[in-house]
Design brief:
It contains 13 helices and 8 strands. By secondary structure, the chain is an alpha/beta fold. It folds into 2 domains: 134 residues, Pyruvate Kinase, Chain: A, domain 1, CATH 3.40.1380; 111 residues, Tetratricopeptide repeat domain (Serine Threonine Protein Phosphatase 5, Tetratricopeptide repeat), CATH 1.25.40.10. It has an 8-stranded mixed sheet, sandwiched between helices. The radius of gyration is 24 Å and the shape is elongated.
């Protein structure tokens, strides 16, 4: 087989009649995996033919994950994960990539079919920008789903690297390197089927790692955002509220930080006077801030309800009739 042809579509040949994408050799798909034999094939099917190269960093699989990846044409890179560091693992994958662009996916994610031409479009534009993907997170069957936004498509540049041992991000590196962050319309489905106990154990594990990171670099307030989120997921609202207050003190010009502090003071650790001060500060920093206005309206409704005297019981009710 021709070497170039072997690299164009990792693992499988394009379907009959499929038009080759002229830019796909510019794109590397990078992944980190561990014991993902159940999910990996579905993920790779969703991006088949899109990237000219597949880099899979394996952090210690004991199942068939490495063999499945190799069978689909991946360069499988073993990685020592004795010290938990997801950023280091992702950066290892990027360092092995030869494409001008990187698409980063996890094994329990799939790229929606309608997003494939968007990936092609942004790679062809070749701007110095990282692109946010909308990620739909599906919980266990019957569980609640939610949406978040993650940068998953970006130029392959030496200074564009992830940071954070857990909840790793590349956003700051792209901005520091002169790039921009853009919304894209790219959509990813994420299926995490861990049970509640497993999820809570992971929350507690992440909390300890985040505390270590914060102790090592107290100036990095982004770690505090994730710490508050982990406490919130464990329903440890007092601890989450304290972290939100700390973030607002450390980032006094961050309207969003004051908003979140206000939400905790309104809903989880009630202090209506402090909540009003938080929302007012958010609006001062960002006039017209819709979320701050909405929560301030909710606060005022609660204040009115608290100040309205309850009707006296009727005489009939008083006599038990």
């Amino acid at each position: 087989m021709d070497q170039d042809a072997a690299q164009t579509t990792p693992g499988r040949s394009p379907a009959a009649g499929q038009k080759p994408w002229p830019h796909r050799l510019a794109l590397s798909l990078c992944m980190i995996v561990k014991n993902e034999a159940r999910n990996l094939g579905r993920c790779l099917d969703s991006v088949e033919g899109l990237a000219g190269e597949l880099i899979v960093v394996d952090t210690g699989s004991t199942d068939e994950t490495p063999a499945i990846a190799a069978g689909r044409g991946a360069k499988v890179v073993p990685f020592d994960f004795t010290t938990v560091d997801f950023a280091a693992a992702r950066n290892q994958a990027i360092s092995r990539a030869s494409g001008r662009w990187v698409l980063m996916l996890d094994a329990d994610e799939t790229l929606e079919p309608a997003s494939r031409p968007l990936v092609e479009q942004f790679v062809a534009l070749d701007e110095n920008a990282g692109y946010y993907a909308e990620r739909l997170n599906h919980g266990p069957e019957g569980g609640q789903s939610n949406v978040d936004y993650v940068v998953r498509l970006f130029p392959n540049r030496p200074d564009y690297r992830y940071r954070g041992r857990v909840h790793e991000t590349i956003d700051a590196a792209i901005l520091a390197g002169g790039g921009r962050l853009r919304q894209s319309g790219i959509r990813i489905d994420h299926n995490f089927a861990s049970d509640r106990d497993s999820r809570r154990a992971k929350n507690r594990w992440y909390i300890e790692i985040l505390k270590e990171e914060i102790a090592a670099d107290p100036r990095d307030t982004s770690r505090l955002d994730f710490l508050a989120a982990e406490y919130h997921q464990l329903e440890m609202f007092d601890e989450a509220s304290e972290i939100a207050e700390r973030i607002a003190r450390l980032r006094p010009l961050d309207a969003r930080a004051h908003l979140f502090a206000g939400v905790y003071h309104l809903l989880y650790k009630p202090d209506l006077a402090q909540a009003r001060a938080d929302f007012s500060q958010a609006l001062l920093l960002r006039p017209g801030y819709p979320e701050a206005k909405s929560f301030l309206g909710l606060l005022e409704e609660r204040e009115r309800a608290a100040s309205t005297p309850s009707p006296a019981p009727s005489r009939t009710l008083a006599h038990g009739r």
